[in-house]
Amino acid sequence: MAGLMQPLSCELGPGILGNIFDGIQRPLKTIAIKSGDVYIPRGVSVPALDKDQQWEFQPNKLGVGDNITNGDLYATVFENTLMKHHIALPPGAMGKISYIAPAGQYSLQDTVLELEFQGIKKEFTMLHTWPVRTPRPVASKLAADTPLLTGQRVLDALFPSVLGGTCAIPGAFGCGKTVISQALSKYSNSDTVVYVGCGERGNEMAEVLMDFPQLTMTLPDGREESVMKRTTLVANTSNMPVAAREASIYTGITIAEYFRDMGYNVSMMADSTSRWAEALREISGRLAEMPADSGYPAYLASRLASFYERAGKVQCLGSPDRTGSVTIVGAVSPPGGDFSDPVTSATLSIVQVFWGLDKKLAQRKHFPSVNWLISYSKYSTALEGYYEKFDPGFIDMRTKAREVLQREDDLNEIVQLVGKDALGESDKITLETAKLLREDYLAQNAFTPYDKYCPFYKSVWMMRNIIHFNTLANQAVERAANADGHKITYAVVKSRMGDLFYRLVSQKFEDPAEGEDVLIAKFQKLYDDLTTGFRNLEDEAR
């Protein structure tokens, strides 16, 4: 073993996408082929990226004599049919071009650029290294204003995140943290995804490795492409070395920052940061440092903060002018679901979005098991401009839906004491609307083609029709109570509106594959039919 006299660094260049690395960027697929073993044998040495593979190099409109500085994109490499890999000048480099390779096939060892600065010439390949614990430099940080659309209604509609946001998913064993992380990897509107399995069980990572190559995504032009073409996996299971587990999170975020600097929106899933903190505790113990709460080191909160601070929307260095973002979604596994655990409480003091998973919801087979009473998002104000453009009425609908769900929680205590029949008519309608929201809106079946992914327009229209039903039913009951005719009760509404009620429940069965225009026409017809149905009901009651 020989020291390189440099910090732990990542190799960054073509070949990262579709690959699977361990925590210190050893290519696991290559090692498995080379060693023929399921475990990494001692003494094996394999470069992170294949240095012999030929890549299609296409220089941009730059020539000999042009000045170039760090962050400038000087070439494009065709990596796969989904992603263009832009080659940028590494941070800290600058000068006048004395040689740039013509278009053609080159390996990562071939010189493709030569710069001259103050009489000194320096050669560059398509590959460069970067220390994993050092954030990559940017021109400036920007305020994020575009939502991270996940395809999960409860997240997109009630607790949205932004491209460049920080999210935490704490939950006990079996609540579905890994499933939500995988759903985000499959269906989010990010350009590329870095999935870090940090200290989780080996069979979970094996499931990810089996599922991802089989998954496809449909592009706007109708092409089907493999999700793996935009994904990088960093697998550090619980039986791998502790030091590599501690480094794996930094390896993942460095790869994410590399793609961000090309102008892409990157999502990084860390599953789970609790195992990373446990590795930190173990290393701290070996170094004989003074332990703090629950044996974790005193610097746990600052390490977590420095990691989450690397998220955000940025103005990238160099030209052309471009912006990129890194969104961090960290799963947290508190022992026994105890949210007062040091890792959970330190994480919640940093992140802006909290998707709290509930064991009771998971036991009722309600997935995603996000508890709508304890979860929150601090990005709602930042996204108001986007929502106003998309649908001016959405913000009011969301507020009303939250009020209905909160009111249901308050009424449940009364119902348990005196029964449902003792409630007023409007309270009965509130309970029915809340049941619609809970069972047919917030819950999603990930194993069906129509509900595994829900586009945002479908989420908005489903919510609009449910809230419209609630408003019309309450108005009908109030007007009939003040008039001299027949009273309209909740029971009358339920019996007379049975067909429309069934259509409300069945909204989730509409398949997005039919197309946006077809679905919106169906939802609009249901909206109009609800209005007509309640008008007829009121006319008959007079």
Automatic annotation (TrEMBL):
Residues 46-133 form the ATPsynthase alpha/beta subunit barrel-sandwich domain. Its EC number is 7.1.2.2. GO terms for molecular function: ATP binding; ATP hydrolysis activity; proton-transporting ATPase activity, rotational mechanism. Residues 385-477 form the ATP synthase A/B type C-terminal domain. Residues 151-377 form the ATPase F1/V1/A1 complex alpha/beta subunit nucleotide-binding domain. It catalyses: ATP + H2O + 4 H(+)(in) = ADP + phosphate + 5 H(+)(out). Gene3D superfamilies: 2.40.50.100, Bovine Mitochondrial F1-atpase, Atp Synthase Beta Chain, Chain D, domain 3 (1.10.1140.10), P-loop containing nucleotide triphosphate hydrolases (3.40.50.300). One of its GO terms (cellular component) is proton-transporting V-type ATPase, V1 domain. Keywords: ATP-binding, Hydrogen ion transport, Ion transport, Nucleotide-binding, Translocase, Transport. It holds the Pfam family ATP-synt_ab. One of its GO terms (biological process) is ATP metabolic process. Catalytic subunit of the peripheral V1 complex of vacuolar ATPase. V-ATPase vacuolar ATPase is responsible for acidifying a variety of intracellular compartments in eukaryotic cells. Belongs to the ATPase alpha/beta chains family. This is V-type proton ATPase catalytic subunit A. The lineage of its organism: Eukaryota, Viridiplantae, Streptophyta, Embryophyta, Tracheophyta.
